Amino acid sequence: MIVGIGTDLCDVRRIEAALQRHGLRFVERILGPQERVVWAQRSGRCAQRGLRYLATRFAAKEAFSKAIGLGLRAPMRWRDCEILHQPSGQPAVVLHGALQRWCAERGWHAQVSVSDDGDWASACVIVEARNAPARAPLASSADTATPMPDEGEVRRR
């Protein structure tokens, strides 16, 4: 069962300005330990790749905070929510500390998608309850559609 959906659209230029203003402190405030390693690797190869990585993580964490209904207040903390890649390349939400315990108590699991293009980074998060009752299968369109009258029937009306 879906318990929350969150989206965020982030202006990469805004993240760049914050990074220029606050430097590494901004990165340390937003990214968790494993994300910082990836950010450093990407930034080392190309500053824009590091910037886009930071912007997509910022957007994903904003979207996650909306999906769980807390915004950015305890137990939601930037560094306790990491967006890491599985071996397949799919992004995944990895939680730590009080935030991990809070979500686990509710049986919640999150799915995330991130994207960036030009000056924009976006993210969408869906939070589901793992122990939700099974849903009935969706009806096919043939089961729910109102049949169209045939041509002869229309003329008779």
Tell me about this structure:
It is built from seven helices and five strands; from the N terminus they run E-H-H-H-H-E-E-H-E-E-H-H. It has 157 residues and is of the alpha+beta class. It has one domain (2-132): Alpha-Beta Complex (Ribosomal Protein L22, Chain A). The radius of gyration is 21 Å and the shape is globular. It starts with a strand and ends with a helix. Residues 134-157 have low confidence and may be disordered.
Given the C-alpha coordinates, what overall shape results? globular
Helix-strand category: alpha+beta
Percentage of residues in DSSP E strands: 25-35%
Q: How helical, in percent, are the residues?
A: 40-55%
SS element count, helices? 7
Question: Strands of the biggest beta sheet: in what spatial order?
Answer: 1-5-4
Catalytic activity: apo-[ACP] + CoA = holo-[ACP] + adenosine 3',5'-bisphosphate + H(+)
Cofactor: Mg(2+)
Subcellular location: Cytoplasm
Domain 4'-phosphopantetheinyl transferase: 4-118
